[in-house]
């Protein structure tokens, strides 16, 4: 990535933090960079575009194409502006809608060698199960926030509003630890990061 692109992305990173727009944690960004250096993905799927920060990183780390899904129209507009500014707009395909409704049509007939699951926290397991036939053997799945507010591994009482996410995230972590389907590793850094390799 050149200096100009890094400067633009630093600005986007800082304004996202100021505006409380969720983008990947700094720790997850490091893991993402390492994975791109190691695996050099070519066909990427992202669930959760937000304002285009992580999709821009991926398009700049390798010459991949990225399909990315987001339900918030305003965020998509900002993402498109950013991709244009960075000159990566031709390689990033934006799909607007609720992933629950559009995921099947986005991935129909396609396979991916890298998937970044970063949308609705309750849906990670359901989405990975659905995506399994669309991921190459040896393909990488990165997931941010898997230890959600530190509650997923905690013993303490989980208040009602977080209960579904925590329950579903625990089921997701159990699913990815199935050694017949995946090699997986969960990092405690940031809000918890899972790296899953399909067997
Ligand atoms: C953590 S942010 C994504 C950050 C982005 N990957 C990055 O690091 O720059 C999660 C995004 O997922 C979107 N989202 C949540 N649930 C969704 C759903 N069911 N369908 C599509 N998008 C969803 C939210 O609107 C939000 O912008």
Short overview:
By secondary structure, the protein is an alpha/beta fold.
Keyphrases for this structure?
199 residues; alpha/beta; Rossmann fold; 7-stranded mixed sheet; 7 helices; 44% helix; binds S-adenosylmethionine
Could you give the topology of this structure?
Elements: H1 3-18, H2 26-39, E1 43-47, H3 53-61, E2 65-70, H4 73-86, E3 92-96, H5 99-107, E4 112-117, H6 124-131, E5 135-144, H7 160-176, E6 182-187, E7 193-198
Parallel strand pairs: 1-2, 1-4, 2-3, 4-5
Antiparallel strand pairs: 5-7, 6-7
Bound molecules: S-adenosylmethionine.
S-adenosylmethionine (SAM) binds next to α3, β2 and α5.
Structure description:
There is one protein chain. 39% of the residues are buried. This protein has a single domain, classed as Vaccinia Virus protein VP39 (Rossmann fold). It has a seven-stranded mixed sheet with strand order 3-2-1-4-5-7-6, sandwiched between helices. It has 199 residues and is an alpha/beta fold. The two termini are 31 Å apart. It is 44% helix and 22% strand. α4 links the parallel β2 (65-70) and β3 (92-96).
